[in-house]
Amino acid sequence: MKLQCPKCGSRFEMEQAVRELEQSETHDIAAKLGEHWRLVFEYSECFRQKEYGDVPLTTRLRTFKSITELLDTNKFEYRKKWYRTSWHESIKAMTQICNLQKTGFTNNNYLFKMLLSTSDRLSAEGLSAKEEREREHARARAAHSSKDVAHSPGKMDFKGIVQNLTDS
């Protein structure tokens, strides 16, 4: 399909425009990754379907985006469960995969399997089990400390009543 530029009138193909946009996004991601760009590019080579084949630009770009998201958020989803990892562990796992020189990947599950051993599983609220335990302990302590006076049946807390009346 041929398109025409509204300003200069030159004609170009739609595929060419899409390819240029993908290349532009790839350059932006490369700049964002900095020194780790080479490792991420090498990791994207694992998505070759044949030993000496090449990776389509769309697949490579999708891989770059997912790895950038992993490195930015340090979170990933594997089998409908969320996990938190560290930036260092992600880089280490990608390096190990690149050293194995595997090919034929269709998704990042191999990387995620390698990260599972060093990752914390997250709850629906985005907290690890340790963080949830700490939160529950803090709630229990707060509830326990809010009970100033242990009330026994039949006793009135006149100090508390007077305090409430003077506060309002």
Q: Structural class of the helices, strands and pairings?
A: mainly alpha
Shape call? elongated
Query: Which blocks of ≥5 consecutive residues have pLDDT under 50?
Result: none
Q: What kind of sheet is the major sheet? A: 3 strands, antiparallel
Q: What integer is the average pLDDT?
A: 83
Q: Proportion of β residues? A: 5-15%
Global Rg: 28 Å
The helix/strand order is: EEHHHEEHHEHH
Q: What proportion of the residues is helical, as a percent range? A: 55-70%
Largest beta sheet: strand ordering: 3-4-5
**CA-to-CA gap between the ends?**
74 Å
Count helical runs.
Answer: 7
The beta-strand count equals: 5
What is the compact description of this entry?
With 168 residues, this protein is mostly helical. It has helices spanning 14-33, 37-44, 57-73, 87-100, 109-116, 129-146, 158-167, and strands at residues 2-4, 11-13, 75-78, 81-84, 120-121. The strands form 2 sheets. The chain has a 3-stranded antiparallel β-sheet with strand order 3-4-5. A two-stranded antiparallel ribbon has the order 1-2.
Helix-strand blueprint:
Elements lengths: L1 E3 L6 E3 H20 L3 H8 L12 H17 L1 E4 L2 E4 L2 H14 L8 H8 L3 E2 L7 H18 L11 H10 L1
Antiparallel strand pairs: 1-2, 3-4, 4-5
Helix pairs in contact: 1-3, 2-4, 4-5
Task: Walk me through the structure.
The radius of gyration is 28 Å and the shape is elongated. The protein contains seven helices and five strands. By secondary structure, it is mainly alpha-helical. It has a domain at 35-134.
